[in-house]
Amino acid sequence: MQTVLIIVHLIIVLALIGVVLLQRSEGGGMGLGGGGGGGVSGFMTGRGQANALTRTTAILGGLFFLTSLALTLMAGHSGAPRSIIDGASTSAPAGQQAPAGGQGGNVLEQLQRMQGGQPPAQAPGTPAPAPAAPQVPQSQ
User: Fold this and answer.
1) What distance lies between CA 77 and its chain's CA centroid?
2) Alpha-carbon distance 113 to 117, whole Å?
């Protein structure tokens, strides 16, 4: 449903762009769009056509607003979790053992388990062993 609404939204956007570009400019920017009865500028000089374009622009603008609002509401009601922390659980998924000490581990380890990744080799909370420092004989 969301894909269909996006396609309709894009069609409305393209139509709105086209209708706005068809309208005659009233500011007379760079000498275009005003005066003269001949040439391209005479194409849309009738008052009835201008009213139709204005009305069409207003309708397309309203439809654009409605489809934008509908897409926003649909995105807010999706089934996806709102936060990574909300989706993380303290129990291990089926087929995997819970970490030692009954702890759920940190968020990274929980996310790795949720995605089917392998947990780290050592238990959470235990620091990695420090490398042995070489013994230097003391001189007296």
Assistant:
1) 14
2) 5
Please tell me the pTM assigned to this model.
0.45
Closest CA to 33 of 42, 25, 22: 25
Distance CA 130, CA 42 (A): 85
Q: Which value, to the nearest 10 degrees, does the dihedral of the CA atoms of residues 38, 43, 48, 51 take?
A: -120
Q: Which burial class, exposed, middle or buried, applies to 68 when counting CB atoms under 10 A from its CB (0-12, 13-18, 19+)?
A: middle
DSSP state of 139: P
**Length of the chain, please?**
140
- pLDDT score of 69 more than 80: yes
Contact yes or no for 49/97 (Cβ under 8 A)? no
